[in-house]
Amino acid sequence: MNELHLAYKVRHHLNQGLRDIPVETIGRLEMIRQRALTHQKVSVHQSVLAGTGSFVHDCLDRLDFRQLFLALVVVFGIATYTYWYADQSITELEIIDSALLSDDLPIAAFTDRGFDAWLKSSASQ
After folding, report:
1. How far is it, in rounded angstroms, from Cα 10 to Cα 3?
2. What is the spatial distance between Cα 104 and Cα 12, in angstroms, rounded to a whole number?
3. DSSP labels for 38-100?
4. Model confidence over 26-85: pLDDT tens digits?
5. Is 27 helix (H, G, I), strand (E, B) or coil?
6. Which of 24, 39, 82, 104 shows a CA-CA span of 20 to 30 A to 88?
7. Residue 77, CA distances (Å) to 15, 62, 87, 125 in order
8. How far is 78 from 4, CA to CA, in rounded Å?
9. Alpha-carbon distances, residue 115 vs 33, 67, 75 (angstroms)
10. Taking the domains of the chain in order of start, what are their residue ranges?
11. Which residues contact 109 (CB under 8 A, 6 or more apart)?
12. For residues 123 and 96, is the Cβ–Cβ distance under 8 A?
C-alpha cells in the first residue's frame, strides 16, 4: 500500500467519524479552536534589514536618557583626547622640522644612528 492510498483511507475514516460526534462537542471544539487561533503567534517573514531595524527599535525603546547622555559624554571625551593628542604630535613634528630647516647640519648627521635620539631630546626641551 502506498502513502497516498493510506492517506486517503485515513481521511475517509476521519470524515465518517465526524458524523458520530455530538453537536455540542463540535461547538466546544470550534470555540476552543477559535481561541487557540487568536493566541497563535503569526510568523512574519522579514528581510534581514527589517530584522535589524526592529532590533535597533527595540533597543531604543529600552534606552534610558542617562545612558544616552553618558555614552555621548564618553564619545565626546574620546574625540577630544584624540584631537588633543594629534595636535601635540603635529606640534612636535613642527618643532623638529623647523629645527632641521634652520640649522646648518652636515649630511652625515642625518644618517647617524644617534640623530633620532638627539632630535627627540632637543624637541622635548
Report:
1. 11
2. 108
3. HHSPPP----HHHHHHHHHHHHHHT--HHHHHHHHHHHHHHHHHHHHHHHHHHHHHHHHHHHH
4. 889 889 988 888 887 776 655 556 566 677 777 777 777 888 889 899 999 999 999 999
5. helix
6. 104
7. 74, 25, 15, 29
8. 69
9. 88, 50, 39
10. 64-125
11. 115
12. yes
Q: Is the dihedral of CA 48, 49, 50, 52 positive or negative?
A: positive
- Residue 14 C-alpha cell reads as 476521519
- With a cut of 60, say whether residue 21 has pLDDT above it: yes
- What is the distance between the alpha carbons of residues 116 and 79, in angstroms, rounded to a whole number? 30
Amino acid at residue number 71: A
- Cβ neighbours of residue 96 closer than 8 Å, sequence gap 6 or more: 119, 123
